[in-house]
Amino acid sequence: MKKGIILTGDRPTGKLHLGHYAGSLASRVKLQDEHRQFVMLADAQALTDNAEHPEKVRENILEVTLDYLAVGIDPKKTTIFVQSLVPSIPELTMYFLNLVTWNRLKHNPTIKLEIQHRGFGEDVPAGFMVYPVNQAADITIFKADFVPVGEDQLPILEQTTELVRKFNRLYKKEVLVEPKALLSQVARLPGIDGKAKMSKSLNNTINLSDSADDVAKKVKGMYTDPGHLRVEDPGKIEGNCVFIYLDAFATDVEKVAEMKEHYQRGGLGDSVVKKYLLEVLQALLDPIRKRREAWAKDPGAVMEILRKGTDVAREAAHVTMQEVREAMKINYF
Ligand code: TRP
Asked: Which residue's CA is the nearest one to ligand 1's atom 3?
């Protein structure tokens, strides 16, 4: 018996990194055993701010799918699919757009922040402005009960819930399901430079596909406590990336606690802590890297997994869409 339906997705605009792993990939691997899970490559959403570079989105369809397979998302258990090839999603989006005001869209905190980051000013692409409504359609067309996301996505889930309630109330049928966010246990992973977020545009990521050498270089250069100049000095662990990463990925909690204590007391050098972090990360990333390399040898097979997954998703979405049309009384014949 499955414990409910899960839908998540990623914009295919770059390779996935440790932040994605801690934030959601690891939990997807666990959740796929007991839930009906859909994982979506949100290419249409990616195009809302990459319309000039469709090739960037296209390239990353394969890269992100390789990342999924590498971490252990199993296509026998999880339906992996491409958003733009499921026409019921934009169809439902059109009807949802009538249930939300322009003013509400403008005040979505996620969108406000992203508009700032992208420097759109007044010239926000209309498609970008409405992507939360499109995302609501992604989620509800599969009747998802749970959406594993990072905190930054909560305002979008809130808007989804509003749309579901409005739809069900207006059309007097409990067709659509209110989704719940599944927040990751790990706080957001900072970049290796200590900036709040690991992000490709900031060039501060450790990618799942990075070579062992690259990971070693990145860990060596990682931001720690800038005031910790000599080994004897007491060091700070707050905001110290090396310890934040150890908290996120090391399984030997006692050892980490001991190191933290020693570091704060003084006498534990950054290089020792970094060496341990590197061990932890290589142990995590080695098998991922190996699986990725194996799949990468057969891109045809990977694309076939996507094609099959997309067929399954398209059919599931179509079934909901018919219920939607019926509830709206626009199922003419
Ligand atoms: N907006 C999400 C992100 O930027 C990607 C996404 C698109 C998504 N559709 C979704 C996530 C549906 C969860 C559910 O990461």
From this structure: 10
Which CATH number describes the domain made up of 212-293?
Answer: 1.10.240.10
**Which residue type occupies 177?**
V
Give the DSSP letter of residue 17.
B
CATH 3.30.1300.10 fits 5-190+299-327, yes or no: no
Atom 5 of ligand 1: nearest residue by CA position:
10
Q: How deeply is 137 buried, as exposed, middle or buried, from its count of CB atoms within 10 A (0-12, 13-18, 19+)?
A: buried
Which tens digit of pLDDT belongs to each residue from 48-107?
999 999 999 999 999 999 999 999 999 999 999 999 999 999 999 999 999 999 999 999
CA of residue 296 to ligand 1 center, whole Å: 25
Shortest-distance Cα residue to atom 13 of ligand 1? 8
* Cβ–ligand 1 contact at 20 (below 6 Å): no
Q: Where are the domains of the chain?
A: 5-190+299-327, 212-293
Q: Residue 142's CB: how many other CB atoms inside 10 A? A: 27
Q: Is 64 in the pocket of ligand 1 (CB under 6 A)?
A: no
> Quick check: pTM over 0.85?
yes
